[in-house]
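Request:
Um, any thoughts?
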Amino acid sequence: MNILKLILPIPPSVNKYLYPKTVRNGNKTYVRLAETAESIKYKRKVKPIIKQEIIDQGWTIPDKSSKVDIHIDYYFNKKGMDPNNYLKILYYYQILN
């Protein structure tokens, strides 16, 4: 089994990941969700960490048709933090692509 072990900082919560942004297209105005500066900063910080660990551990990136099993352990610094609020950024943005 090909295993990659990572220790990463806690990502922004769902509440700090996206925000509603008003966009104009001609005469039409609509609202779409955009990433916050905090989530963009997090991804910029984490991507090189992951790439370096891939090299250090000799891990091979599976092809897109492969199934990948992900196991996440959280170590929070406060009681009552909900791990489900922190998964979205990890799954939404596929850092390895």
Remarks:
- Residues 37-57 form the longest helix (21 residues).
